[in-house]
Amino acid sequence: MRYDPLSTATAVLTRVGGRANVTSVAHCMTRLRLGLADPAGADQEALRAVPGVLGLVDGGDGTLQIVLGPGVVTEVTAAVHTLLTRPSPEGSTGPPTKPPPERPAGQGAGPDEEEPRRRGATPVRTSLRRIANVFLPLIPALIGCGILAGLNGLLLNAAWLPGLTPALTAVASAFMALIAVFVGYNTAKEFGGTPVLGGAVAAVVVYPGVAKVTAFGTHLVPGQGGVLGALAAALLATRVERWCRGRVPGALDVLLTPTVTVLVTGLATLYGLMYAAGVVASAIGAAANWLLATTGAAAGLVLGGLFLPLVMLGLHQALIPIHTTLIEQQGYTVLLPLLSMAGAGQVGAALAVYVRLRHDVPLRTTIRSALPAGLLGVGEPLIYGVSLPLGRPFLTACVGGAAGGAFVGFFAMLGTEVGATAIGPSGWALFPLLAGNRGPGMAAAVYGGGLLTGYAVGFAATFLFGFPRHGRPPTTREGKRSRADARRTAV
Fold it and tell me: What is the DSSP letter of 159?
């Protein structure tokens, strides 16, 4: 049957308590993220049974993440937006037709809307989620510009198409040169300010004229502080704007509020935030380089082994600002290739399950359909469809990821850095984005060796230790047990 995103969206909205229960809609590369007024109104068991739904992650703060996979999530999100704004037929007994209330320009969620999101949430987790929401919309541009930058680098090294490479340089580099503006815009939008004011104060960070400004006895450098400075500037602008709106008379609000917001925040950015953010950004870069140069194998083992649980909990998005800062500073992030090894361990574990459970036809079918996505670095289908329900294979997949991370980290200790010029892809899809201090060829060789190590160790660990010691592994045919039963048996 042909895939229909509208049918999936309809089924999802019905099972989360209807349209009136949805307060926000967003998506990342693989997940539909719904803010719910009443999280208890969502029928999670029914949601898991919807065709195309690969898994659920409860954000704990009134958000529900529905794992759909790349490509599919974009279509389903668009269909959800369509359904939320479409009036119901007269006499319909379906969910309420009223879409989430629209916010006035420049204003964030009100207290009544924010309260459900705070239920069960910790301040740290909520802050990480909101900061991740700032950077998630930037990932497609980071991927596209990163691939073009890699292609342009190959053309430059080979001295091919010299008339085209200057144009490719401009196309690939323009977004990174102005990324601070986009970060400021998204930050103000996420935290309840006027987006364009957030972009305006963040633009101060990258304006060439700041080179004439002296702060703390030194001249500022355009781009100093990068995305961290832009994030801090936009957050301050949001606070200043809210303060003004509560005190400026309505007749003067349209003139005074934007002026005061830009003036106060702009000066604070020039004479404080840019310098402080620059220090923090430099510390992040120095710490990453030191970590890999001195404890590369151990660091890779820890990062590669823990990344799957972070993905499962949705906390991996909190690393995006760190990746972006490293890309701004060094041209690539050395952390992403290490973390990508978790997906290799997951693929190896899934292959071992495929071999061991020869009689479980439904599970083997799931593995065959999810394996291509896993090889390309999209791990959720294998996590929620295979390893996590079985229990032990999820842990042995983490062992494979740790081994792959240790492999890449070991070469970093020997002086061979492997980095990614953009974030988002992993697995085989990361090869076009690889870079390093010894050229893309060496980076690809080390990264490929890490993938093979993750595959092999994930497979061996799962094959040997991923199933009960006594008796045969459970199958669907024998007793027709559910995946939950299989998980309890394996654990």
Answer: T
